[in-house]
Amino acid sequence: MSGGGCVFFHDGDYAGFPRRVAALVLDVFASLLLLRVPLEVMARFHPEMTRDEAVRAAGPYVWLALAAVIAYHVAGRRLRDGTIGYRIMRQRLVGLNGAPPEWRALAGRFLLAVPMALLFLAGYWRILRDRRRQAVHDRWAGTWVVKSGASPAGGAQPVLRSTLVGSMVLTWWDVEPVETVAAATGETGLPRARE
After folding, report:
1. For the whole model, what pTM was predicted?
2. In DSSP terms, which residues pair with 94 in a beta bridge?
3. β-bridge partners, 176
4. Strand pairing partners for 146?
5. Ordered DSSP codes for 131-179
6. Residues 134-162: b if buried by 16+ CB within 10 A, e if exposed
């Protein structure tokens, strides 16, 4: 991972727990509406069908609706203003460079976020303890949720961090402000004198 173009935001620019959970609830509601569409179409155009018959007939279309839900959550977060929940809660998803994350990071984030959300928001509780308010799936994907109007506070260096969970080592990319990295390494940014 190269350091080119990495940024960090002020601590107050990262979206907090209530805002993140409210956006999640709104996006889950939007997803449920998308999944409901095939059943409503069957009920509207085939009123003679029983509920069970309508559910069986809508089966293949439910798979299409499920694909639409996945596209909503993955592609929607690639947009500058994000999904409906992100727009209403005025937050956006960014990667290491402060721009919308890459597709691969978004897909991985979604695959980890779904089970974490289903397990009583297991991955979201971490936001309460994290300085940059990252949930587990954000850490894993190298993403941050910031307020919509947030601007980068400055340049940063990517830093590989690790923690021990039981016998497993979990590793993720984080960013450190360039000034902090320079102070820790003793670099001033000025050319070094020849010895």
Report:
1. 0.81
2. 144
3. 157
4. 14, 92
5. TT---HHHHHHT-EEEETT----EEEEEEEEEEEETTEEEEEEEEEEHH
6. bbbbbbbbbbbbbbeebebeebbbbeeee
Tens of pLDDT, residue by residue over 19-49, are 999 999 999 999 999 888 877 877 788 888 8
Q: Which residue carries 């390494």 as its tokens?
A: 185
> Tokens 């993403």 label which residue?
143
CB 38 within 8 Å of CB 64: yes
Q: Sign (positive/negative) of CA torsion 148, 13, 21, 159?
A: positive
Query: Phi and psi of 57, rounded to 5°?
Result: -70, -30
What is the helix (H) or strand (E) element at residue 64, kind and residue range?
A: helix 51-75
Residue 82, exposed/middle/buried by CB under 10 A (0-12, 13-18, 19+)?
A: buried
Residue 24: both structure tokens together: 């999640």
Q: Please report how the helices 51-75 and 103-118 are oriented relative to each other, as an axis angle in degrees rounded to 10.
A: 130
* pLDDT tens digits, 114-129: 888 888 788 888 899 9
The residue among 179, 178, 126 whose CA lies nearest residue 156 is 178
d(CA 131, CA 92): 17
